[in-house]
Amino acid sequence: MPTAEMFRNAEKTENGVLFKGFLLEPVVEQCNGCDRVREIEGEWYCSSYSKPASKWRNGSCNFATHLKANQGKGKDKVNPIKASKRAAGKK
Ligand code: SF4
Question: Domain residues of the chain, as ranges?
Fold first, then answer.
């Protein structure tokens, strides 16, 4: 598969892939299905972050396109003040 168009100027070095001054690290397992994953000479990299693993270190990546369908379902935030007033009005 050819290298993604946006990574056309990427340069393979012995330390990894160098792109616009950043050393790119390959995507991690959690990135599977994300639209930002691009291919460079047979390996997969993120088009937004040079170190995808760090985006998943403290929870989900905030730029992941494959998680948006599940985000927010069943986790509606409750304003405690409004909830208190609602409860008080039901007496
Ligand atoms: S945007 Fe996040 S989930 Fe998507 S490829 Fe990059 S690091 Fe992975």
Answer: 5-89
3-class state of residue 52 by DSSP: helix
- 47 within 8 A of 56, measured Cβ to Cβ: no
Pairwise pLDDT comparison (76 vs 78), residue with the higher score: 78
Nearest by Cα to 65 from 39, 26, 30: 30
pTM: 0.70
Closest ligand 1 atom number to CA of residue 37? 5
> How far, in Å, from the CA of 84 to the mean position of ligand 1?
39
For the chain, the average pLDDT equals 85
